[in-house]
Design brief:
heterotetramer; A mainly alpha; B mainly alpha; C mainly alpha; D mainly alpha; A: mainly alpha; Helix Hairpins; 3 helices; C: mainly alpha; two-stranded antiparallel sheet; 25 helices; globular
Chain lengths: 106, 515, 632, 119
């Protein structure tokens, strides 16, 4: 077991859980596309926190940290692609409101 | 050195992608390419769609051939494979999937090579993107660890988001890309959180380690708590459910399929779904393969069975009422995901047969869907793309070959005997009956009845209906690449339908000896 | 005999591919034609390579009887299918060549099928050919005929050329699709009649569907599409349930005998638990009752007939309906005798009440001739099913004979209705009157065929119906209802006379009411040529029925004793008993009906071993691969 | 446990108090006339023209994103550099492949004109 006291791990995991739920609810509730993008990033960072906290418990290998590196890199790429799509969406429809995305119906 | 041989399909596709990027950047635009572009920076790849398409398909077919080569060499004998083991498992299971994914990618590249120049979409980034997405899909199918699962999933998905949003001018394509992007990254975040909980509970990130740790739940000395594992199971199922487009998570599919250019839709329907099933099978059978989790009472089979029933029923019923053929094919791909889920649910008792049936079904599904979309592309030309039923009215008189090809693929999707689709469905339902899931089989068969209705409805429009005088009529286009893709798909559909012996034994071998 | 012809058979596919390849006309110059021909040959070689067993004939472990040529059935079934594919490559521009090719192939098929008559129908399967198709599934390409299916094949090879001859006369547009649909339909029907492997039967059963839908949908009448949908969905609903029953029985056989097989011989040797047997019987019966059609599920037939073109409705009436009854004899009575016996009395009631009486009353009310003939065929098929439910020797023989007679008589009727439809483009009885004066030959033929369909002694109709009624009277399966049902059936014969003669009177005799009927041309050469063989058969079978009846003795006896053994085992078994009827079938003597009984595969990985699954260990092996090697 | 972090909490509290105090003082003590002229956005003296959200050209976005994407890769090079000695040739070869992929991406962006600042 890592140097951390047992119950402190729960604090971190609790925090990660709370952050994740905030991100998920933010994604589902908010209509502005940029806010949805931000809430996805929030969810990813909550997962990072959980990984680092758990890695502290399973002390010997650096799996958790390695995972975090990859998540950060992929999140950056995801944001790049996401912003490009949002930009072209904004260019075409003049708004970032996801309710306006109703050209495809039926 | 063995490692390079073992990973040859993956490296070929990746290296091919890089080469294609450079070729596209440094190639000189074709003369008619320059005249068309209005922007100040003349796209180097302008007007080069056909050549790049051919290059991409050659690379992907080479990948497929290498996969068969490594299969013949026998991945167990190559000892270099152990170095990269927990992250990329090179065994018969992943080689079979590599073959299917490369085949699907090759079809997409061929269709794209014909479709893009025809509809003046001059974004020839299409082909490097197809290569990189297939690279991600193969990595996903090969991955034996949550890390490479996530990286493969994201590489594939990012490529597909761009593929959809390629036609920047059209609001429909951008909107489709936006919807798929939002839901796709949401699904990836769910899967990730599941992975974090699994890592926390078991201390392993590789699937086999997780499987063994999960098996120790309940024993006195086990350090693994049941709660996070069950929560992780739910989250992973939700995340992969999005990717597989099972019903409760399918809202994005019709819009994404309809908005995207048709070759991209073929790619999503064939390759993305197959790769998602590959990883779903591996995660469920290896990560959560322990008896209690796999039993009908306490484990995931009832969840998968409900997903299957919902997907089949909703997919078929809603597909029947669609007006656009592309949207109908989107809902029918949801129904086919449902049938494959029946195979996954059937793994509770006859694991080998059920896994082999899912593998074979996915091979048949990839070929038939790619062929169907190819024929749909062939039926429409520049201004008059064939999308709705009315566009296809009376096309059998104007372009009998395209109509015949389209009917063949529709019959294969509907599951009529001489074609491969029937055998795939039969094999899945037989393994479901071996696991005594009678209700599932009955529902599946009734759904294939509904499915037969709307597949034959397209044939009715093609053969028996006259085009409404005023309506814009889709003129069939002539493109060598699309025709060659269709002929290849037709040969495979009939070949697998009449003589499925060889590929069937490969599927069984792939499912049986994991190592 | 087989040496030389075997060689031809081996070379046939390559010759055929070369011929088709070289025939693509648009390419000028000989080099391209030869080149494509060679590509065709390579393609066939590739296909042969995929299916190694088919290439060397002696791989078929079952040696058939000395005097019978094993490949005969393959040639009969696959000639039209390969012909259909060849038609696709033929040029679309000149229909004359297309028609000539189709008629040539159908005539050749008819002549070859006459070879079947040469062997006398002793007990056991004839012209049997077995080869491995999918060993891992136990699916074999197993074709054979016996007394019953022999006459079905001949009926089909006789009526399809006639239907083609007639439809080429009346249909001028899209000939290529018509030829393709006709040939594929012909091949599918023949395959369904001869296949003894449940999987093969199901493949041919579904293969027939699409060409018939195309026939109805493309050249049909006003609302042809609705009729095509109805036909497709009714039949599909039935066959989907049948597939579920097949899969269950295969699984049950695997539990009982240890190895997986789809073969009919193995399935008929299986005793299922009581509820499962009843459910399977309901599934199979539903599929065949829809096809027959029997009373509650017959609504698709009148629409399909009214909308179908003449040729299509001849085939539909003459052969497709017989598949339902043939399927009932072969699969419901042959495999699931027990539940068939329990349900026989009620189903016979439905056949008499719904089929014979209701069908006759509906026919009587119709104003459209084609719809009238459609309902009359519902009545005739009611007779056939009554004979099958009676399950006595004379009942079943009568039923089989009525199937052949109905095929001939109703086929001829539809042909004749097509004749006046081509002239007046209407089918309403009120439109015609006093045709006898204008078209004497046509009237004479119509009266003769009406006599046959009513069942006047001397024509074939009478013999069949008489034997069915006698069989119902003495049947043990129908118990005390037998006599009542026989009486009602005889009453049905009278009703048949009523509605047929009333139509004949209205259309042919009395004054010419409608001016347009004055100068209608009489039957031309093509139509007379088409109807002549049918009229001849009416009298031949009417006066010498023993030609057909004697050949059926052994196979009808076999069906009855399978039916009785099924009944005894079903009555005796407890709720969950699952066993093989006779555990040691004699698989190798050609005279027994268990010839070529499927044997468990002798390969090393014993089939039953991997049938019992080990969920966790294989799953771990699946993911484990070589990852164990990594020391982290 | 709480006493371990007491000084930190105190420091936070004081900082928050000072900041809040400054704002509230300005609000309550000073008089702030809401004249129209005072509410216009302050643009270093000259008056404003044109719409509020001027259309930014794409190149700002492009440069920022390219920076973010390429800078993240440094995350992977750091641990590799730390263990450079231990990894030997295999490590070097794999990192070489990683860098080559990045190079191809850079050349692609450059050739496609993503890095052009002024036309």
């Amino acid at each position: 077991m890592g140097a951390l006291l047992g119950n402190v791990l729960e604090h971190y995991v609790m925090l990660a859980g709370v952050l994740f739920t905030i991100g998920a609810v933010g994604f589902l509730v908010r209509r502005n596309v940029l806010v949805q993008l931000m809430s996805i990033e929030l969810m990813l960072n909550a997962v990072n926190l959980a990984f680092v906290a758990y890695n502290r418990v399973h002390g010997d290998d650096m799996n958790g940290h390695m995972f975090v590196f990859f998540i950060i890199a992929v999140a950056a790429a995801e944001v790049a692609v996401g912003l490009a799509i949002v930009l072209s969406f904004y260019r075409l429809t003049g708004s970032v409101h996801s309710d306006d995305a109703d050209a495809l119906k039926g | 050195m063995d490692l390079v041989i073992a990973l040859s399909p993956l490296l070929a596709v990746g290296f091919g992608g890089l080469m294609l990027m450079l070729a596209e950047a440094f190639g000189k635009p074709s003369e008619e390419g320059i005249s068309k572009t209005t922007g100040d920076v003349v796209d180097a790849g302008a007007g080069r769609g056909a050549e790049l398409g051919l290059g991409a398909s050659v690379v992907l077919i080479a990948g497929a051939v290498m996969a068969v080569g490594v299969w013949i060499v026998g991945p167990e004998t190559l000892e270099g494979v152990a170095d990269v083991a927990p992250y990329l498992l090179i065994d018969r299971f992943s080689l079979f999937f590599t073959f299917v994914l490369c085949l699907g990618g090759a079809f997409t590249a061929l269709l794209g090579g014909g479709y893009l120049p025809e509809h003046r979409i001059d974004r020839s980034e299409f082909f490097p993107l197809v290569l990189f997405s297939t690279f991600g899909a193969i990595a996903l199918a090969m991955s034996g660890d949550l890390l490479s699962l996530f990286v493969g999933l994201e590489t594939m998905s990012l490529g597909v988001y761009c593929l959809i949003g390629l036609r920047r001018g059209s609001a429909r394509a951008t909107e489709a890309a936006l919807k798929y992007f939002l839901l796709g990254s949401f699904a990836a975040a769910l899967t990730l959180f599941g992975a974090a909980l699994l890592y926390g509970a078991t201390g392993h990130t590789d699937l086999v380690g997780i499987g063994e740790a999960v098996a120790t739940i309940g024993q006195p000395d086990s350090t693994v708590a049941a709660m996070p594992v069950l929560l992780a199971l739910a989250l992973t199922l939700a995340g992969l459910g999005f990717k597989v487009a099972a019903v409760p998570f399918h809202q994005w599919t019709p819009d994404a399929y309809e908005g995207a250019p048709t070759p991209a839709t073929a790619f999503m329907a064939a390759v993305v779904k197959t790769a998602a099933f590959a990883i779903l099978l591996r995660v469920l059978l290896v990560g959560f393969g322990e008896e209690r989790l796999m039993s009908w009472g306490t484990g995931w089979p009832p969840v998968i069975a409900t997903l299957a029933v919902l997907s089949m029923t909703v997919g078929n019923v809603v597909a029947g009422r669609q007006e656009s053929v592309k949207r109908m094919l989107a809902y029918s791909s949801i129904a086919h995901a449902g049938v494959a889920l029946v195979g996954v649910a059937a793994t509770i008792r006859s694991t080998e047969d059920a896994t082999a049936s899912v593998l074979f079904y996915l091979l048949v599904y990839t070929v038939s869907t790619a062929g169907a979309f190819g024929a749909l592309i062939l039926c429409g030309s520049r201004g008059a793309e064939a999308v709705s039923y009315e566009d296809l009215a009376g096309i059998a008189k104007r372009h009998p070959a395209a109509a015949l090809a389209f009917s063949l693929f529709l019959l294969s999707l509907a599951g009529f005997p001489p074609t491969a689709g029937f055998f795939g469905k039969l094999y899945v339902f037989q393994s479901a009956i071996d696991s005594e899931l009678y209700v599932l089989v009955i529902i599946g068969l009734v759904n294939s009845l509904i499915g037969a209705y709307y597949y034959v409805r397209v044939m009715v429009y093609m053969y028996m209906r006259e085009p409404v005088p005023g309506a814009p009529v889709a003129k069939p286009m002539s493109s060598g690449m699309v025709t060659s893709a269709i002929v290849l798909a037709a040969l495979l559909v009939l070949g697998l339908g009449i003589l499925p012996g060889v590929s069937l034994d490969m599927a069984i071998a792939a499912a049986a000896r994991g190592g | 005999m087989t040496g030389f012809s075997g060689g031809i058979i081996e070379a046939l596919p390559y010759l055929f591919a070369f011929f088709v390849g070289a025939m693509i006309p648009r390419r000028q110059g000989w080099a391209e034609r030869v080149g494509i021909g060679v590509v065709g040959v390579l393609a066939v070689a590739f296909v042969m390579g995929l299916w190694p067993e088919a290439a060397d004939a002696e791989a078929t472990q079952a040696v058939t009887r000395a005097d019978e040529w094993p490949q005969l059935l393959n040639v009969i079934v696959f000639l039209p299918i390969v012909g259909a594919v060849a038609i696709l490559f033929a040029p679309r521009q000149n229909p004359k060549l297309l028609r000539a090719m189709t008629m040539g192939i159908l005539a050749a098929d008819f002549l070859i099928s006459l070879g079947l008559l040469r062997a006398n129908m002793t007990t056991g399967w004839h012209f049997q050919y077995v080869t491995e198709w999918l060993p891992t599934f136990g699916i074999r390409y197993h074709v054979a005929i016996d007394g019953i299916s022999l006459w079905m094949v001949l009926l089909s090879t006789v009526t399809t050329p006639i239907a083609a001859l007639v439809s080429f006369g009346s249909i001028k547009k899209r000939t290529k699709d018509l030829c393709f649909a006709m040939l594929l339909l012909h091949g599918g029907m023949l395959g369904a009649f001869v296949s003894l492997d449940l999987f093969l039967f199901y493949v041919f059963w579904e293969l027939m569907l699409i060409p018939m839908v195309i026939l109805i949908g493309v050249w049909g009448g006003v609302e042809k599409i609705k009729a095509a949908y109805k036909f497709l969905l009714f039949t599909m609903a039935g066959s989907v349930l049948m597939l579920a029953a097949i899969l269950y029985m295969v699984w049950a056989h695997r539990q009982a005998a240890g190895f997986v097989t789809f073969d009919y011989l193995a399935m008929s040797n299986l005793v299922l638990p009581r509820t499962a047997a009843t459910l399977c019987f309901i599934a199979f019966a539903f599929a065949f009752v829809v096809k027959v059609p029997m009373w509650p599920l017959h609504t698709w037939l009148p629409d399909a007939h009214v909308q179908a073109p003449t040729g299509g409705s001849i085939i539909l009436a003459a052969v497709l309906l017989k598949l339902g009854t043939y399927g009932y004899v072969r699969f419901c009575m042959g495999m699931l005798g027990g539940p068939a016996y329990d349900r026989a009395a009620t189903l016979a009631g439905v056949a008499v009440g719904g089929g014979i009486l209701y069908g006759a009353l509906c026919a009587w009310k119709q104003t459209d001739v084609k719809r009238l003939v459609a309902y009359s065929s519902v009545a005739h098929m009611g007779f056939v099913m009554l004979g099958l439910f009676a399950a006595t020797t004379s009942g079943i023989k009568g039923a089989l004979l009525t199937m052949i007679n109905h095929g001939i008589a109703t086929g001829a009727l539809f042909l004749l209705v097509g004749v006046i439809y081509d002239r007046r483009h209407t089918r309403l009885v009120s439109e015609f009157g006093g045709l006898a004066k204008v078209m004497p030959v046509y009237a004479a033929v119509f009266v003769i065929v009406t006599m046959a369909s009513i069942g006047v002694p001397g024509t074939n109709g009478f013999v069949g119906e008489f034997m069915v009624i006698v069989g119902t009277f003495v049947s043990s399966a129908l118990g005390r209802h037998g006599s009542i049902q026989a009486v009602l059936a005889t009453f049905g014969v009278i009703l048949a006379a009523v509605y047929m003669l009333s139509v004949v009177q209205k259309m042919f005799f009395g004054p010419i009411t409608n001016k347009r009927n004055e100068n209608l041309p009489d039957m031309n050469v093509r139509e007379t040529l088409a109807v002549a063989p049918l009229v001849a058969l009416i009298f031949v079978l009417g006066l010498f029925p023993s030609l057909v009846l004697d050949t059926m003795d052994s196979s009808v006896a076999h069906v009855i004793d399978k039916y009785n053994s099924g009944r005894d085992s079903h009555r005796g078994n407890t709720i969950d008993e699952l066993r093989l009827l006779n555990p040691s079938p004699k698989g190798d003597d050609p005279t027994s009906y268990d010839h070529n009984y499927p044997v468990p595969p002798k390969s090393d990985d014993d089939e039953s071993a991997n049938a019992a699954s080990r969920p966790l260990s294989t799953a771990v092996a699946l993911g484990q691969g070589v990852s164990r090697g990594v020391a982290r | 446990m709480f006493d371990l972090y007491l000084p930190m909490f105190l420091m936070f509290a004081i900082a928050a108090g000072v900041a809040a105090g400054m704002f509230s003082l300005g609000q309550f003590v000073g008089k702030n006339p809401q004249s129209a002229e005072k509410l216009t956005p302050f643009e270093c003296g000259n008056d404003t023209e044109g719409a509020g959200n001027v259309r930014l050209s794409v190149k700002f976005y492009l440069t920022a994103i390219l920076f973010v994407v390429f800078d993240i890769e440094v995350v992977f090079i750091y641990p590799w550099a730390a263990l450079f000695k231990g990894l030997g040739w295999v490590g070097f070869a794999s990192m070489l492949m990683f860098v080559v992929a990045l190079l191809v991406a850079l050349v692609y962006c450059w050739k496609k004109g993503a890095l052009e600042w002024e036309k």
